[in-house]
Amino acid sequence: MSLVSKLKFKGRDIVAIEDFSREEINYILNISHSMEPFAAKGSDMLKGKILASLFFEPSTRTRLSFEAAMLKLGGSTIGFAEAEIASVRKGENLADTIRTVENYADIIALRHPLEGAAKLAAEFSKIPILNAGSGAEEHPTQALMDLYTLQKEKGKIDGLKIALVGDLRYGRTVHSLAYGLSLYNIELSLISPESLRMRPEVIRAIRNKISIVEDANLEKIISKIDVLYVTRIQKERFPDPAEYAKVKGIYRIDLKTLKSAKKDLIILHPLPRVDEIAAEVDSTPQARYFQQVWNGIVVRMGLLALVLGAVE
Ligand code: CP
After folding, report:
1. Are both 303 and 279 inside the same structural domain?
2. Over the chain (312 residues), what is each successive 10-residue block's mean pLDDT?
3. What atom of ligand 1 comes closest to residue 58's alpha carbon?
């Protein structure tokens, strides 16, 4: 590759977005961009390497895009997509699972319902751990693809006015994204009902770095923003179903919502969606969530190539 850097990624875990500087994130975005042709025509730069995808929670995009990324770079994949078929069902703990799988693979993508699971796995593992979602805590590779999407769609990240909307308490993607965005010169609106406000530790970490407004009312800010990042209310993470019932369907983006929006607003969503973006929005020029899905594969190709040392 022609991009050469003093930054070191080979052998690193990708556990939390806070572990990365702005310079490092920009470098990952540049390398990811260089993967676009390989996402289309393939490459053998990771020939002989094996990705283990260990998914203890459901996933469509993250697991399949990690696996597709590895295949497109000439490597192979092993793994499981539900804990029920793995030996955790017999009582095996995560540390033993990791110490076993490290004998079979060169890198592990791990999704787990418990916060801290990826960090724990990284402490035990001799091979790099890619956090593919740890409970309601973090989803760093999603944040990297979200930042890549902003860069690609808007040509820049600095200067953007961005609203994160929906479940900011249980939605892990918005936690990682907020940490990542705090490294740029942006204005952030956090739109959620009171009960789903952004986690306090995230606010504490970012409030002195960027301008933040917290509100429940999307209408107040819709005309001012450049990016509307919508999230699903995470039904499965509510301890009390009655609390979920109070906020179910609270935000729904439809053509009426977009009437006062900027013409060049872009709408992102980590997906899956339930009912928070109406299907009628899909055909508008603002809808970019399926382009965002494509960006997931190039960013995960970039990460695999960097962490496995195929590019520097
Ligand atoms: N965005 C995301 O994490 O999607 P999946 O749950 O389908 O992997």
Report:
1. no
2. 70 97 98 97 98 96 98 97 77 94 98 96 98 96 98 98 98 98 98 97 97 97 98 94 94 97 98 97 98 98 98 90
3. 6
Residue whose CA lies nearest to ligand 1 atom number 5 = 59
Which positions are annotated as active-site residues? 61-62, 90, 111, 139
Regarding the beta carbon of 180 and ligand 1, being less than 6 Å apart is answered no
Classify residue 242: in a domain, yes or no: yes
The atom number, within ligand 1, closest to the CA of 132 reads: 3
Q: What are phi and psi of 272, to 5 degrees?
A: -75, 150
Q: How far apart are the first and last CA of the chain?
A: 8
pLDDT confidence of residue 2: 42
Residues 165 and 108 in one domain: no
CB distance 131 to ligand 1 below 6 Å = no
Å from CA of 173 to ligand 1 middle: 9
Are 189 and 301 within one domain?
no
Cβ 61 under 6 angstroms from ligand 1: yes
Residue 80 lies in a domain: yes
Task: Check whether residue 32 and residue 101 sit in a common domain.
Answer: yes
In angstroms and rounded to an integer, the radius of gyration of the C-alpha atoms of the chain is 19
**For position 146, which CATH number holds?**
3.40.50.1370
pLDDT at residue number 84:
73
Nearest-angstrom CA–CA distance, 221 and 163? 8
Q: How many CB atoms lie within 10 A of CB 113?
A: 14
- 121 plus 238 within the same structural domain: no
Residue 292: burial class (beta carbons within 10 Å; 0-12, 13-18, 19+): buried
Ligand 1: residue whose CA is nearest its atom 1: 270
- Residue 28: domain span: 3-138+294-307
Residue 312 belongs to a domain: no
> For the chain, how many structural domains are there in total?
2
The verdict on 159 and 106 lying in the same domain is no
Residue 86: per-residue pLDDT: 75
